[in-house]
Design a protein that fits this description.
Blueprint: H1 9-32, H2 35-39, E1 58-66, H3 67-72, E2 76-84, E3 98-99, H4 106-110
Antiparallel strand pairs: 1-2, 2-3
């Protein structure tokens, strides 16, 4: 039999150094950072749902399709992302409990899109 020996000592040292640095970076991130801000959805104004508005933790998109542009083939879709207290059910007429953004009125939260037309 051949004389067997470890040939990956350099790689083992580099791997252990990587694991140590990775552990230090993770520790710094969790002690000094805010993971909740990283994972929270952002509304149209840049506010974080669930963080800036604790009572409105979910993100909802209000979509407005310009019916005039459908004929030409260049569909113009405008959307606004808003924070809501709960995800609305499909095709209901109930108003949405939303946090108003700068370009949104309370009438917009009350209006809904009928998903059966699409």
């Amino acid at each position: 039999m051949k004389d067997r020996r470890c040939t990956d000592i350099l790689f083992t040292i580099l791997f252990l150094a990587f694991v140590g640095v990775y552990g230090w970076v993770c520790n710094q991130g969790f002690t000094n950072g805010d993971p909740e801000r990283l994972l929270s959805p952002v509304d149209f104004d840049g506010k974080l749902c669930g963080v800036d508005y604790p009572e409105h933790p979910f993100l909802y998109f209000l979509i407005n399709v310009d019916q005039k542009t459908i004929v030409t083939g260049n569909v113009d879709i405008e959307y606004k992302a808003i924070c809501v207290s709960e995800c609305p059910a499909t095709n209901t007429t109930e108003p949405i409990d939303c946090k108003l953004i700068t370009e949104l009125t309370e009438a917009s939260c009350a209006s809904r899109i009928n998903m059966t037309n699409y």
